[in-house]
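Now for one specimen:
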Amino acid sequence: MPSNSLQSWHNSRRIQLEEIIEAHRAVGGTGRGRRYATEQVNHAYAVLLSSQFQGFCRDLHSECVQHIVQGVPAPLQNVLRGEFVRDRKLDRGNPNPGNIGADFARLGLRIWETVGALDMRNDARKQLLDELSNWRNAIAHQDFDPMKLGGRATLRLNDVNRWRRACDQLARAFDKVTRTHLRALVGSVPW
């Protein structure tokens, strides 16, 4: 059974992402050819994807924390929970590899090493997540430096769709490795 976070990723978060795809179709149509108005929709799609993946990662981290603290005496649960989420990077920063790695490391999980060992394609997905984060920052700060964006300053729908597939696979991998880690850490299956 998947975590509540992964279920949300596949349901409510997916629906929100599909809504922007529908907006893209409405603005640009479905035929071939360059659609100038769609670039702004591509920007919105990239920012939404980044925010939805950030929400998934933060929710998964919270679920992990809850599973860990439920085994300690009730008076200590809030104290311990507070320590696990204090200055959590996913509460205020992008879901880039560094922030995700730092937050899950507080739970004793080297998430990037673990998902890399699970499937070697996850290393490439991690790079795609980093690209998404760079584009999200470029859009949010209106700083389209081609040197930071893979040599170009135009975002295409195919780019965002590729990032979305990477996020989907990473979400599944994160769910699996956190489940295994928590079972080993506290001796019970979290979900």
Summary: The two ends are 6 Å apart (CA to CA). The chain has one domain: 4-186. Residues 26 and 147 are 32 Å apart (CA to CA). The chain is about 70% helix and 0% strand.
